[in-house]
């Protein structure tokens, strides 16, 4: 089996509402580049990557000369061919490599007629638990989320619809004291559920310490990226009695080694794109198991293709002791056959078909490619409701929670 062609299609899939985060916003849609790798036996493998609200089509197409004639089974050779660690300093290809790896694993599974999790060591669970992913958000389907009452109502609606028993609040938008009130409101409303808070690294050491100490008595999973950098996280870990987690500063094996030697965080959120593929995450999870680091699965704004990679990863990790993250329930649709994968009791079933176990809905791919052509991309690190604003690290320019959020397109 040899690769003969690669195609890339950028799509814009609507969200229920624009979602706010510490660096800006998801502007009411996810911009994702769908990758198709074709082989000489007629199979097509699927991959997916983001791009901060922008297209990665041309970067994917530029890999054609690297891929033509390559055997999809030779994944380790492909890693060095595309993402050599020194050459990669000049062309950031980690996420490109991930999308190609997804497609190759999909191809191998189809060729052998086995699901991807069988290629990764075999599943030990049939479904993967997920946390609700709560954002402050502009008005849209389901309404604005700005106040503690609105946040609790939104979390309750998600819990009723999908069965979540873990709730993650994406913070770093409003002043820390206000977001603390919101987090406490969640704890009061769902006393039996687990909680996690993620301000995306924008708090100062003092703010993060105060916030962490204030929530120590709550039913926390972990305190995720309260400050930026391994040394800053190490200081917070010494001051606050809650497990610390990161998806921003342990995203490769050198950083993981540093965290093993000088413990800064307790939980590593593995992302199948940030780490360069599913296999890299499986390797990292093995190291985490050895050194008693917790493991969770990170979400970087997935459609069904990347979600399938997260599910196959979650299926094979014995040390996945935390519910996975997913933006998925904020989407109004997907580009895979059968529509969006369903939550049942807060879990999503691991696909059992060959390869990734999902296929493209060509009509929806065309529809959302046309929507991308109509609307274009957007800068993930800007907030359309605050023109000219951007955060610093640590940040001190917060949105005003007293001001209703203005609708945007």
Describe this structure in words.
This protein folds into two domains: 3-118 and 362-375, 2-Layer Sandwich (Enolase-like, domain 1); 122-349, Alpha-Beta Barrel (TIM Barrel). By secondary structure, it is an alpha/beta fold. It is globular, with a radius of gyration of 20 Å. The protein has 13 helices and 15 strands. It has a seven-stranded parallel β-sheet with strand order 7-8-9-10-11-12-13, with helices on one face. Strands 1-4-5 form a three-stranded antiparallel β-sheet. Helix 7 runs parallel beside helix 8 and helix 11 runs parallel beside helix 12 (304-316). The mean pLDDT is 96. It has helices spanning 57-61, 64-67, 75-83, 94-112, 116-119, 148-162, 176-189, 205-215, 230-239, 253-261, 278-290, 304-316, 362-375, and strands at 3-14, 19-21, 24-26, 29-39, 44-49, 127-129, 132-135, 166-170, 194-198, 220-224, 244-246, 267-270, 294-297, 343-344, 347-349. It catalyses: D-glucarate = 5-dehydro-4-deoxy-D-glucarate + H2O. GO terms for molecular function: glucarate dehydratase activity. Its EC number is 4.2.1.40. It comes from Thermomonospora umbrina. It holds the Pfam family MR_MLE_N.
Compute the CA-based radius of gyration. 20 Å
Q: Which class best fits the helix and strand makeup?
A: alpha/beta
Our measurement of the CA-to-CA distance between the termini, rounded to an integer number of angstroms, reads 45 Å
Task: Characterize the overall form.
Answer: globular
Strand content: 15-25%
CATH fold field value of the largest domain: TIM Barrel
Mean pLDDT across residues: 96
For the biggest sheet, the summary is: 7 strands, parallel
The CATH homologous superfamily of the largest domain is termed Enolase-like C-terminal domain
Care to count the β-strands? Answer: 15
């Amino acid at each position: 089996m040899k690769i003969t062609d690669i195609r890339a299609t950028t799509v814009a899939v609507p969200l229920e509402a624009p979602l706010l985060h510490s660096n800006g916003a998801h502007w009411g849609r996810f911009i994702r580049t769908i990758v198709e790798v074709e082989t000489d036996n007629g199979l097509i493998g699927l991959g997916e990557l983001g791009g901060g609200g922008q297209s990665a089509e041309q970067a994917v197409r530029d890999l054609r000369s690297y891929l033509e004639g390559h055997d999809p089974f030779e994944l380790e050779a492909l890693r060095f061919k595309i993402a050599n660690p020194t050459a990669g300093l000049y062309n950031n290809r980690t996420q490109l490599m991930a999308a190609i790896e997804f497609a190759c694993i999909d191809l191998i599974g189809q060729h052998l007629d086995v699901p991807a999790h069988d290629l990764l060591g075999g599943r030990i669970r049939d479904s993967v638990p997920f946390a609700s992913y709560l954002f402050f958000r502009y008005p849209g389907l389901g309404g604005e989320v700005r106040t503690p009452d609105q946040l609790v109502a939104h979390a309750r609606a998600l819990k009723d619809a999908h069965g979540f028993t873990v709730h993650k609040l994406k913070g770093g938008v409003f002043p820390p004291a206000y977001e603390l009130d919101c987090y406490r409101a969640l704890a009061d409303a769902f006393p039996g559920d687990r909680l996690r808070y993620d301000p995306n690294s924008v708090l100062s050491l003092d703010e993060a310490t105060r916030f962490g100490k204030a929530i120590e008595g709550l039913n926390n999973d972990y305190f995720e990226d309260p400050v930026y950098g391994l040394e800053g996280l190490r200081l917070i870990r010494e001051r606050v009695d809650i497990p610390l987690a990161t998806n921003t500063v342990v995203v490769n094996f050198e950083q993981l080694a540093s965290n093993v030697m000088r413990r800064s965080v307790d939980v590593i959120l593995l992302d199948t794109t940030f780490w360069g593929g599913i296999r890299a995450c499986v390797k990292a999870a093995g190291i985490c198991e050895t050194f008693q680091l917790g493991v969770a699965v990170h979400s970087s704004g997935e459609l069904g293709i990347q979600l399938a990679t997260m599910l196959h990863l979650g299926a094979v990790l014995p040390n996945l002791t935390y519910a996975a993250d997913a933006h998925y329930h904020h989407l109004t649709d997907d580009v895979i056959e059968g529509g969006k994968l369903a939550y049942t009791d807060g879990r999503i079933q691991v696909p059992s078909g060959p390869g990734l176990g999902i296929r493209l809905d060509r009509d929806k791919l065309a529809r959302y490619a046309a929507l991308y052509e109509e609307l274009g991309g957007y800068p993930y690190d800007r907030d359309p409701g605050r023109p000219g604003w951007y955060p610093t690290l640590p940040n001190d320019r917060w949105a005003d929670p007293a001001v209703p959020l203005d609708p945007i397109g």
